[in-house]
C-alpha cells in the first residue's frame, strides 16, 4: 500500500474514531455529572501515567527496528517477543503499584474500583502491538480494529450506564477496548505467521532493548509532568468537579491532537529509511510540508472555536459544564502545537536515531512546567491549568524545532565532508 493510501485510510478511520467520543461524552457528562465524570477521568489519568513505564519508548524504537528489518522474518519474530516480554514485565510491576495506590490511599470505594479498572488500560497497551503494525505499515488495519471494538462496546455502555451510581461500569467499558482489540490484532499476527512461537528471549535481550528505548522513556516520563500532573493538582486543590470540567475539555482536544498520528505514523518508516540512506534534504522537504499542514489546521480550528465554541460546549456537555468553555478557549490551541512538536520529534529526532537528545529537551520542559503550573492552578484553577499546558507545549515545540534543525545541519555537513573526501580520493 502506498503512503498516500495509508494516510487516506488512516484519516478515514481516525475521523470515525472522533465520532465515538462525540456520541459518548454528552451522554456520560449528563448521566455521571461533573463529580462522576471526574472519578473516571482521574482513574484514567493515573493509568496513563503508569502506561508511560509500560510503553518505555518501545512504540518508537521497536517500530523503527521493525521498519528497518521488515523483510527478515526471524529478526521480526525476535523483536516481537523481546518487546512483548519487556512490556509484560513492566505491566506487572505497574499493576502492583496501581493496586497499592488504590488500597493505601484515602479514596472512597468508587474511586478505588475505578482505579483498579485502570489495569485494563495497562494490559491493553501490552496486547496491542501498535509498534509492530506501524513498522510493517499495517496501521489502517489496527485503527479499523480499534474503531470496531469501540463501536460495539457503545451498546452495553448505553444499556448499563444509566445513573451517577454506574461510575464503575462506565470506567470498565471505557477502559477495555484496547484489551479486546489487542487480542484480535495479536491473533492476526500469529495466523498470518508474521510472528510465531518458539522464540527464546533472554534477560540480556530485554535489557538491551530497554537500554535502546531508555532515552525516549525518560522523555515520555518528563512529558507526563505537564500532561497529567495538572489533573492530580486540580483534584488535590479543587476536588472532583473541577477535574471533571478540565477532563471534559481534554476529552475534546485529545482526539484533535491525535489527528496528527496517521500522518506521522505513515511517514515514520519512510523517514527512517531516508535517514539511513543519508537523504537529509528529502527529510527536510517532507517535514516542512507536514508542519505547514498542522499549523494551518490549528489556525482554522482556533478561529472556528472563537465563533461557535460557547454554543457547542453548552449543547454538547450540558449547562453544568459552562466552565469547560473557558478552559477550551485556551486548550484549543494545544493540539496544533503538540502536532508540530510530535512531527519534529518523531520524524526527525527519533527517525535519525538521535533519541538520546530528547532527555535533555524534556528535562528543561518539565522544570519549566513545574515552576509555573502550581501557581497557575492556585490562582486560576482549571483555567490556569489550561494556560500552563499551552505555555509549556509552545516552549517545548520551539526547543524541538531548534534541535531538529541542528541535527539535520550536522548530518548535512557530515555527508558533504564524506563526499569531498571521496572526491579527493578518486582524484588522487
UniProtKB/TrEMBL annotation:
Top-level taxon of origin: Bacteria
Alphabetized UniProt keyword annotations: Membrane, Transmembrane, Transmembrane helix
InterPro entries per the UniProt record, alphabetical: Polysacc_synth, PolySynth_Transporter
Membrane topology, record value: Multi-pass membrane protein
A GO CC term attached to the entry: membrane
Cell compartment(s), UniProt: Membrane
Residue spans crossing the bilayer: 7-29, 79-101, 113-133, 140-161, 167-190, 290-313, 325-349, 361-380
Protein name stated in the entry: Polysaccharide biosynthesis protein
Species name: Paraburkholderia ribeironis
Amino acid at each position: 500500500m502506498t503512503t498516500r493510501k495509508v494516510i487516506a485510510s488512516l484519516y478515514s478511520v481516525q475521523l470515525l474514531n472522533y465520532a465515538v467520543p462525540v456520541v459518548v461524552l454528552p451522554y456520560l457528562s449528563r448521566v455521571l455529572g461533573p463529580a462522576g465524570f471526574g472519578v473516571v477521568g482521574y482513574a484514567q489519568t493515573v493509568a496513563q501515567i503508569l502506561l508511560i513505564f509500560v510503553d518505555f519508548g518501545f512504540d518508537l524504537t521497536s517500530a523503527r527496528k521493525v521498519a528497518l528489518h521488515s523483510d527478515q522474518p526471524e529478526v521480526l519474530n525476535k523483536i516481537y517477543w523481546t518487546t512483548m516480554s519487556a512490556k509484560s514485565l513492566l505491566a506487572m510491576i505497574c499493576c502492583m503499584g496501581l493496586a497499592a495506590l488504590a488500597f493505601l490511599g484515602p479514596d472512597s470505594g468508587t474511586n478505588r474500583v475505578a482505579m483498579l479498572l485502570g489495569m485494563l488500560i495497562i494490559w491493553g497497551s501490552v496486547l496491542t502491538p501498535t509498534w509492530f503494525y506501524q513498522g510493517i505499515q499495517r496501521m489502517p488495519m489496527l485503527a479499523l480494529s480499534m474503531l470496531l471494538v469501540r463501536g460495539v462496546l457503545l451498546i452495553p455502555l448505553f444499556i448499563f450506564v444509566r445513573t451517577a451510581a454506574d461510575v464503575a461500569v462506565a470506567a470498565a467499558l471505557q477502559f477495555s477496548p484496547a484489551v479486546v482489540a489487542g487480542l484480535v490484532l495479536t491473533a492476526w499476527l500469529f495466523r498470518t505467521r508474521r510472528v510465531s512461537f518458539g522464540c527464546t528471549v533472554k534477560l540480556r535481550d530485554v535489557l538491551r532493548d530497554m537500554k535502546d528505548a531508555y532515552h525516549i522513556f525518560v522523555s515520555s516520563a518528563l512529558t507526563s509532568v505537564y500532561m497529567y500532573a495538572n489533573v492530580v493538582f486540580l483534584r488535590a486543590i479543587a476536588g472532583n468537579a473541577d477535574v471533571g470540567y478540565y477532563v471534559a475539555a481534554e476529552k475534546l482536544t485529545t482526539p484533535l491532537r491525535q489527528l496528527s498520528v496517521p500522518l506521522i505514523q505513515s511517514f515514520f518508516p519512510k523517514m527512517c529509511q531516508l535517514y539511513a540512506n543519508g537523504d537529509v534534504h528529502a527529510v527536510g522537504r517532507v517535514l516542512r510540508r507536514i508542519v505547514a499542514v498542522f499549523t494551518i489546521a490549528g489556525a482554522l480550528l482556533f478561529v472556528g472555536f472563537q465563533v461557535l465554541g460557547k454554543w457547542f460546549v453548552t449543547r454538547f456537555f450540558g449547562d453544568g459544564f459552562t466552565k469547560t468553555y473557558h478552559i477550551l478557549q485556551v486548550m484549543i490551541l494545544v493540539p496544533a502545537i503538540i502536532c508540530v512538536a510530535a512531527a519534529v520529534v518523531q520524524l526527525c529526532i527519533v527517525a535519525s536515531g538521535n533519541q538520546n537528545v530528547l532527555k535533555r529537551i524534556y528535562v528543561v520542559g518539565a522544570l519549566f512546567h513545574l515552576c509555573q503550573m502550581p501557581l497557575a492552578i492556585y490562582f486560576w484553577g482549571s483555567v490556569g491549568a489550561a494556560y500552563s499546558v499551552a505555555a509549556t507545549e509552545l516552549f517545548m515545540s520551539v526547543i524541538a524545532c531548534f534541535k531538529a534543525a541542528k541535527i539535520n545541519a550536522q548530518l548535512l555537513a557530515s555527508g558533504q565532508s564524506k563526499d569531498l573526501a571521496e572526491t579527493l580520493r578518486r582524484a588522487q
